[in-house]
Amino acid sequence: AMKNAVPQAASLLLEKLMLLVHIRPLPAGSGGKTPPPAPGYYDTSCFKRGDLLEVPRTLFIHFGIYLGENRVAHLMPDILPSITGDRRQIQQVVTNKRLILGVIARTASVRVDTVEDFAYGGSILVNHMDRLFEDQVLASEEAARRAEKLVGATAYSLLWNNCEHFVTYCRYGAPVSFQTDKFCETVKMIIRDQRSVLASMLLGLASIVCLGVAPSTTLPTIFIPFFLWMAG
């Protein structure tokens, strides 16, 4: 059972590494570009200012705070704010290349987009996380104002500062990421089986992509002790 579980966990870890950074699945023959739905694709009349919008994908969930008038504040990895101040360029829809480079450089931005650009054709859940926080839900206007104050360039970390941390801070007062918790549990499962060469390779990849550890840094001296400590 353990032999079967480890490859499955390793595969899940790799998928999480690539998809938790919000890379959009592009259809075959698209040439790497998929236009978002036309304006009016979503009925925003049921959204209220300060609502937490949740877009489930295949292996991850993207989050944002609705600001009213078809505007959503959300955090996305993006390399562009760190290399240019041209707001017109930055405000263009973030490409997968910008996303990946942003993750590697650990830079991001809290940006305001239309609901169509934010959801990118996915279904939208409204305040679905409220059931997990019950008495911690802040007033809607407070949540929206928190989101607006954070608009602009920020640091990015898959583990410590992603889109879920952003919305839970805005709406519930504390940055939390349940996706990160699941990711860490997967890492713990893998590292407990020290026989897995694949696990070591994936953990090395995670150290570079998620934690910013340079490729020249040796895995045994830097990365494994950290996750052994995390595994408790």
Automatic annotation (TrEMBL):
Topology class, membrane:
Single-pass membrane protein
Q: Does the keyword Transmembrane helix apply?
A: yes
Domain of life according to the entry: Eukaryota
Recorded protein name is Lecithin retinol acyltransferase
Residue intervals passing through the bilayer: 197-230
Primary role: Transfers the acyl group from the sn-1 position of phosphatidylcholine to all-trans retinol, producing all-trans retinyl esters. Retinyl esters are storage forms of vitamin A. LRAT plays a critical role in vision. It provides the all-trans retinyl ester substrates for the isomerohydrolase which processes the esters into 11-cis-retinol in the retinal pigment epithelium; due to a membrane-associated alcohol dehydrogenase, 11 cis-retinol is oxidized and converted into 11-cis-retinaldehyde which is the chromophore for rhodopsin and the cone photopigments.
Q: Which organism is it from?
A: Erythrocercus mccallii
Q: Where is the signal peptide?
A: 1-28
